[in-house]
Amino acid sequence: MFGSIQLDFHRLETFVEPVAIIAGAFLVSRILSELVKRYIRRSARILKVNPTNYSFLQHAVSMVIFLAAVFFVFRSIPQLRDIGTTFFAGAGILAAIIGFASQEAFSNIISGIFIVIYKPFSVGDSIKLLSNGQGGTVEDITLRHTVIKGNENRRIVVPNSVISREQILNSSIADLRIQLYLEVLITYESKQQRAMDIMREEAVKHPLCLDCRSVADKAAGKEVTDVKLIGFEQKGVRLRAFIWAASETDAANMKFDLFKTLKERFDAEQIGFAHDANILEVRNEQV
After folding, report:
1. Which H or E element spans position 209?
2. How many CB atoms sit inside 10 A of residue 53's CB?
3. Torsions phi, psi of 144, nearest 5?
4. Helix 56-76, helix 78-101: angle, nearest 10
5. CB distance 125 to 170 below 8 Å
């Protein structure tokens, strides 16, 4: 009788351990799943994407935990130990084969996760890929790729694994304002001071020009737009105007308008451009 009680207790102990493992896995899965869900929702609001795009992470966490629980259940039951070892060895080989066959897809997914976590850019940001000069506004970030709305309303689709290795110029990450460097090369015979005055006047008159002076700058009488002589070249003098715009789009529109007005004003006042060099050169600098 005593031996029978010991045998029943042993059977009960063998049954309780797997149940405890499964119950613990369920509890841990629920806690981690809730934490991942909150993080996904917060990141989705920042990136302005649909949180369901990343809900697979939540299910992946639960799947890993339950697979580990099943492994320990098989290991805890002597009768199933050999079967469990064989099963998980086969599953490991299958997972390795699948992973090798789809390593590029997994690479894009993992890169997409890192973009969500570290946020080098978000939907709506104006970015440029420094490797090829292509850029535009980030329109969507999916699990596999990032969609950029470029010039002429065309879309640039970049795999996440590629864009995560790129050097990116983000014009929206901290401050949308852009400082426009507008350069003019005029002849030595031209009136340099008058050319500088015209550049300042036309820039300040433009409705997209921002006044970014501080209170101290205004008290000191600093101009809204500064114009400087920055160099002497073989055929002319290079002048540069420093003009502020609210965004990269405003800077581009202002640039096109100033091309026209400066040409008209310079022709009217007989200020000549240096003909063997770039007449106008414009560069944008982020704050």
Report:
1. none
2. 17
3. -100, -35
4. 150
5. yes
- Mind listing the pLDDT tens digit for each residue in 210-221? 998 888 888 888
Cα separation of 45 and 52, whole Å? 12
Of the candidates 207, 187, 202, the one whose C-alpha atom is nearest the C-alpha of residue 264 is 202
Q: What is 190-237 written as a DSSP string?
A: S-HHHHHHHHHHHHHHSTT-B----HHHHHTT--SSEEEEEEE-SS-E
Residue 241: which domain range? Answer: 178-286
Asked whether 199 and 185 are in contact (CB, 8 A), the reply is no
- In this structure, the answer to whether residues 194 and 266 fall within a common structural domain is yes
- Write out the two tokens for 136: 């535009």
Is the residue at 115 inside a domain?
Answer: no
Q: For residue 150, which amino acid is it?
A: G
For residues 183 and 273, membership in a common domain is answered with yes
Could you tell me which of 14, 12, 16, 26 has the C-alpha nearest to residue 69?
26
Q: Would you state the structure tokens that stand for residue 63, as one six-digit string?
A: 């799947």
Structure tokens at 22: 């499964």
- 104's CB contacts (< 8 A; 6+ apart) are 161
Taking alpha carbons only, the member of 57, 77, 54, 76 closest to residue 65 is 57
Name which of 16, 23, 21, 24 is nearest 73 in CA terms.
21
Please work out, in degrees rounded to the nearest 5, the angle formed at the alpha carbon of residue 77 by the alpha carbons of 72 and 83.
80
Query: Is the pTM value of this prediction over 0.85?
Result: no
Angle of helix 2-47 versus helix 56-76 axis, rounded to 10: 160
Cα angle 130, 135, 141; round to 5: 105
Per-residue pLDDT of 51-88, as tens digits, reads 555 555 666 666 677 777 776 666 666 655 555 566 65
* 93 within domain boundaries: yes
- How many distinct structural domains can be found in the chain? 3
